[in-house]
């Protein structure tokens, strides 16, 4: 309030204190009422902040239990990680294995003869690098044979004045990203181009052929200095490509990579070093530690929430006071939903674990949860998938050829029959009968469209092939090495069935299609035209028609709507059933989201409290304005009175002097 000062100059009255007392008498009751309202709203607002934090922490504790991976974890332990490490996936079997690492997989390394420097020229022409299995003796320098791997692409590189130095070739090869890396190594004897196949294994060695512009493809001058094939071994093999060799429980295993994934279901071994004769033990066991920790965090998160809620909604008998939010419908409603969900059985589950109580979680008198570790461990030991089903969304097919892939919020818990009426198939293109094993100039190119991806012009190596099977491998390698095909992640297989060339897309479904779009190789059994498209899997889920895409079968109708399965075999007919359950976590998370979302009930409540505080702030401003006006009015009136009283006092003094004159001496 603005301050107006008056000390009763006319009458001697203390007008300032009089006005202050009157204004205070008017202001104090209203101000105290606003203080009381503000304190209550502020405390409630702060309480909701603490509640929201506790609920957010509880919701965070749900995430680990939502994921099936938490319940499917297995641990693989190696007795000597310096030799081999191991990891286990969810489909591994608990067991123990004896491993002996006899040799590591290696990639091939080839080096050119030494030249004066990295800028030395190497001639011009065409360089072709293929990948496969080489039989070569570096001691006698005898190159016996090369068998191409059609799954690996072929690199054909034009070498001209722009890239015909060691450094230029290195850059061009690396830029192609075609399964080989190049580096120039310089020492006291000069500079060499060293080529390394990027993949390890005996099947990834390199055959290097050249078409040298100097007319001689086998001598050591010009581009032919890079030749490494049956006709010429002008490069030096610095390291031979070889497979890893290990023994598992005494059985020898070969692997093209030092990461061995296919030897035992669900296990991956990484070979670190070879040590023949030393036996390493790899043990696979179920790990319940992560599950127990996640469940313990879930119980703790809920209990922390309850410990905050109870004082706010309860009644303290010792103080005879109700909790600050005892009558708050928003909070009571949210907690009632949580308690209801915690006590419910999980629909769609059968067996010994269908609720929290079954796995050792029970509710105490004060509303908190308690966990029986003995009960939980017993269930994990005998019914791990059942424990997973209590918490997570879970589909359990009874047929090993059916896998649960996904579901949506529309998928309802239940048991659904699966029936396959159409198997998934790959796109196939059948060529005609080839008439020649010789690929000559002018009849060496074609173009193909794979799963809708158009290749560039594919050029076959011009030569006479030993067999149509070898020619088929060359076609496959050239197609899969095409830059557009490779970039799109599609690929084909090419075989000779004894009568014709057969092209097969590696993908399944209606989008799996092959088409020869251009062709000069008329003698090799190719002609322009499309093959037979693949087909999507077809069938029913829960007795209702489902939609197929490749090997995926997805329900779009009924209670199973959104349930996605993967069918891995090629057999038409019934595939038994799948039991689908939604789990507790999803429902709890839904309750939490409704409460905590930006448009949820808690935000609505705190918005209301904030509006109340804002209203009080406005009321205070209005009260202050009103008191300022009152003070000004009182000062005006008292000052007028004071002036009048002063004049009256002056008149009285005059009259007194007039009627009571001072006596003369």
Structure summary:
The protein is of the alpha+beta class. The chain folds into six domains: 15-61 and 599-659; 74-105 and 244-286, no CATH class; 109-239, no CATH class; 289-392, no CATH class; 396-416 and 537-581, no CATH class; 426-530, Immunoglobulin-like, CATH 2.60.40. It has an eight-stranded antiparallel sheet, covered by helices on one side.
Question: Which key phrases capture this entry?
Answer:
12 helices, eight-stranded antiparallel beta sheet, 32% helix, single chain, disordered N terminus, 36 strands, alpha+beta, 665 residues, five-stranded antiparallel beta sheet
Task: Provide an overview of this structure.
The chain has 6 domains: 108 residues; 75 residues, no CATH class; 131 residues, no CATH class; 104 residues, no CATH class; 66 residues, no CATH class; 105 residues, Sandwich (Immunoglobulin-like), CATH 2.60.40. It is α+β, with helices and mostly antiparallel strands and 665 residues long. The chain is built from 12 helices and 36 strands. The strands form 9 sheets. An 8-stranded antiparallel beta sheet has the order 21-36-23-32-33-34-35-22, covered by helices on one side.
